């Protein structure tokens, strides 16, 4: 695989919490314009993996490269290329949407002359035009989630990390978010975690299934479709019946 | 980056009523003391004239105001610093700062600077009291400046300690109680430790402030305040780094 086309490479990523190994030896490679879905039961290590990829958690072992820059050696340069949506939206409820996004843009070193453009563009994309002057605290869960997604993409990062982006949204909003993710996937590479299998099927190019801190299955969705394999069966097979994991 | 974070802190502070209530309450208390001392000075003025080397208006009126100001700040600081870090953790906004291309040092210094700007406003408002007396006569400018400088260093020390305690917990209330407890301890340490040698009393922040209050800028006190501030800022940075390393 040619390294220049990879925007995110995680090698032998591991994380211990005391004696407990939350993530062990995960390998992730993300090509430009690719949407990767991370699946797995609760506690499989999805969020821990994403926290490490976003620089929120230092890995016990392994390396992470973002656009060819080592995240651990040059965190500031690498982080400029990352947009991160944590599991719980990181919102300052006492600020308005505009104030908040402006702060995030400055934090991500968007040139002050371009902040207004970035703000308009991202609000347009996430459907936030009506609520710019409103306090984040009074917005509905759906709008808050959209603000959180806007926060992750305002600086047009090359790598977007989305931890359960569609949680708490109604079916219409989920569809909108999926469309947004697909559109973002044209220019950036995206890694997202979810519990909804159909979400992976509709928006992802590739899927990795995590269980007990390791990758137990990895495949391109086009392959799955070609062989008409059902993702649900695969998921059950690799996360429920442990004896099969060893065979893989 | 430091300025961006400081500006956000100031904004969050001033959109809540807390900051305004504090500004008003502190000003009310200090103006009250000020007027009380002014009354006393006018009453005593004729008698003071009879003394060979009488204390001036600055000493009689302004020094007590600044002495009270230090106690008021000691009480107020924990309530202002409590949410600096604890709330970022509680509201899960810390991942946003950590995922941004900002160093941990910039986060800590930004928050420190943000609250110090607020304290500069307080100290400026306190400073208006002695300057109002310039209308009626001459004041001891050196004494006023040394008091202002002392109050600034004292406030910075309080804030750095409060910032550190706030980074230890996710509950702002616990951070406030912890900071208040530690500040109280550092206040009374010179009272209770009179016969424990002369090392412990040197830790008392307010004892060092007394020097400034009397108009003496002691380089030992200045260095002590500086070391105190830097130590707790470094501890806070280490604590934030640790949260990334140890989870």
Looking at this protein, list some descriptive labels.
heterodimer; A: 248 residues; alpha/beta; Rossmann fold; 6-stranded mixed beta sheet; 4-stranded antiparallel beta sheet; 10 strands; 38% helix; B: 247 residues; mainly alpha; 10 helices; elongated
Characterise the protein shown here:
The complex is a heterodimer of chains A (248) and B (247). Chain A is α/β, with parallel strands linked by helices. Chain A folds into 2 domains: 1-81 and 159-166 and 188-248, P-loop containing nucleotide triphosphate hydrolases (Rossmann fold), CATH 3.40.50.300; 88-156, no CATH class. In chain A, 38% of the residues lie in helices and 26% in strands. Chain A contains 10 helices and 10 strands. In chain A, the strands form 2 sheets. In chain A, strands 6-7-8-3-9-10 form a 6-stranded mixed sheet, sandwiched between helices. In chain A, strands 2-1-4-5 form a 4-stranded antiparallel sheet. In chain A, a hairpin with a 2-residue loop joins β4 and β5 (69-70). In chain A, α3 (97-107) packs across α4 (115-126) and α4 packs across α5 (141-153). The longest helix of chain A is centred in the last third of the chain and has 17 residues, at 171-187. By secondary structure, chain B is an all-alpha fold. In chain B, 81% of the residues lie in helices and 0% in strands. Chain B has 10 helices and no strands. Chain B has helices at residues 2-15, 17-48, 57-81, 83-90, 94-99, 104-132, 141-167, 172-192, 205-213, 219-246. The radius of gyration of chain B is 20 Å and the shape is elongated. The mean pLDDT of chain B is 90. At the A-B interface, α2 and α3 of A face α1 and α5 of B.
């Amino acid at each position: 695989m040619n390294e220049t086309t990879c925007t995110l490479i995680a090698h032998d990523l591991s994380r211990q919490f005391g004696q407990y190994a939350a993530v062990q030896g995960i390998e992730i490679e993300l090509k430009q314009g690719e949407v990767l879905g991370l699946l797995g039961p609760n506690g499989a290590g999805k969020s821990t993996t994403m926290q490490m990829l976003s620089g929120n958690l230092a890995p016990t072992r392994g390396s992470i490269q973002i656009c060819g820059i080592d995240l651990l050696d040059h965190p500031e340069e690498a982080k400029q290329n990352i947009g991160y949506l944590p599991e719980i939206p990181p919102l300052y409820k006492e600020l308005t949407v505009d104030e908040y996004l402006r702060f995030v843009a400055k934090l991500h070193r968007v040139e002050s002359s371009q902040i207004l453009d970035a703000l308009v563009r991202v609000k347009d994309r996430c459907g936030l035009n009506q609520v710019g002057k409103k306090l984040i605290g009074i917005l509905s869960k759906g709008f808050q989630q959209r603000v959180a997604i806007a926060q992750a993409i305002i600086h047009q990062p090359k790598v977007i990390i989305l931890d359960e982006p569609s949680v708490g949204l109604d079916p219409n909003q989920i569809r909108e978010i999926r469309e947004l993710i697909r559109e973002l996937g044209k220019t950036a590479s995206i890694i997202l975690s979810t519990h909804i299998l159909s979400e992976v099927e509709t928006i992802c190019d590739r899927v990795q299934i995590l269980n007990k801190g390791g990758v137990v299955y990895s495949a391109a969705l086009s392959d799955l479709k070609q062989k008409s394999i059902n993702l649900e069966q695969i998921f059950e097979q690799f996360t429920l019946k442990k004896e099969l994991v060893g065979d893989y | 980056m430091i300025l961006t974070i400081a500006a956000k802190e100031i904004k969050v502070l001033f959109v809540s009523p807390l900051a305004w209530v504090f500004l008003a309450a502190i000003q009310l208390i200090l103006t009250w003391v000020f007027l009380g001392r002014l009354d006393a000075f006018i009453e005593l003025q004729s008698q003071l004239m009879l003394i060979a080397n009488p204390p001036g208006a600055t000493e009689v009126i302004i020094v007590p105001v600044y002495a009270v100001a230090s106690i008021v700040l000691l009480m107020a600081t924990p309530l202002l610093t409590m949410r600096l870090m604890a709330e970022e953790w509680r509201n899960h906004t810390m991942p946003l700062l950590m995922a941004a291309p900002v160093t941990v040092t910039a986060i800590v210094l930004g928050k420190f600077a943000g609250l110090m700007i607020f304290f500069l406003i307080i100290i400026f408002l306190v400073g208006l009291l002695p300057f109002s007396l310039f209308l009626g006569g001459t004041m001891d400018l050196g004494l006023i400046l040394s008091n202002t400088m002392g109050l600034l260093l004292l406030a910075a020390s309080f804030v750095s300690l409060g910032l550190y305690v706030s980074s230890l917990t996710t509950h702002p209330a616990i951070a406030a109680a912890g900071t208040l407890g530690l500040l109280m301890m550092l206040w009374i340490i010179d009272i209770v430790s009179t016969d424990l040698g002369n090392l412990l009393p040197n830790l008392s922040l307010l004892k060092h402030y007394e020097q400034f209050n009397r108009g003496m800028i002691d380089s030992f006190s200045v260095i002590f305040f500086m070391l105190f501030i830097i130590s707790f800022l470094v501890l806070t940075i280490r604590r934030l780094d640790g949260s990334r390393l140890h989870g």
